Amino acid sequence: MSFLSPTLRMENLSTVPIMSLDHVPEAQRYNKDNIVAQWCAPINGKMYRIELEHGTTSGRRMIWVNGREVLRRDWMFKLVGEDTFDIDQARCIIRVDPAPGFKYEYSLYIDGKPHAQYTEELTRQYRLWLCTCGSGSGSGQAGSTDASQEYRIMLKLDTLSLYVNDELREEAAVFVEGGTDTSFVLQDTPFVLQARSSGNKHDGIVHTLLVNGVPVPEAKIQQIMQEPVSILQTN
């Protein structure tokens, strides 16, 4: 004879650990308040936001890339260690190490290099511009209206591949006097990427981005390292 009600009999109880998140949709599993470490890095012409969730009480460890879950471990009794995952053929490792005061240190390695070193080296392989344009921005600069759109334009120097918000552009460069021009249009706003010789071997080719005929200052990847949510894809 069972003292349990019919709904509480042992055969009716769930065998799934209550700490598991398998039954929760991915969009609901992501909670920015649970993120303990965040990095941003360029990989093969695209920018990626990498986030770590480290539950010291729940034993859960989750890794998110551009808002998508790529790794999850539940019920981890060892709170330190490393997890390996891939982003666009790049091998990534996140290490969790103990720190004084019952705290933890988090480190990201990409293709065997610490995040800072990897990013510094990649900075020399890209040219980057950030701008805002749209129906009310006119000049392509900040301070535009609600219809404006932020754009991140990246040029990969070894292949001369041009990316706009992680999308590869198909426009071909056209030879002009002194170099080449690559023209494209975003939200009815003309963009021209100029390549001109600097006149000396040290500087090589100089690349300039014009938006509505106005030069846009070149940016550094480090400028969007902390919170690049608005210019990263999350789908």
Automatic annotation (TrEMBL):
A Pfam family per the record: FAIM1
GO biological-process terms attached to the record: negative regulation of extrinsic apoptotic signaling pathway via death domain receptors
Transmembrane segments: none
InterPro entries xrefs: FAIM1 (IPR010695), FAIM1_dom_sf (IPR038513)
Protein name, as recorded: Fas apoptotic inhibitory molecule 1
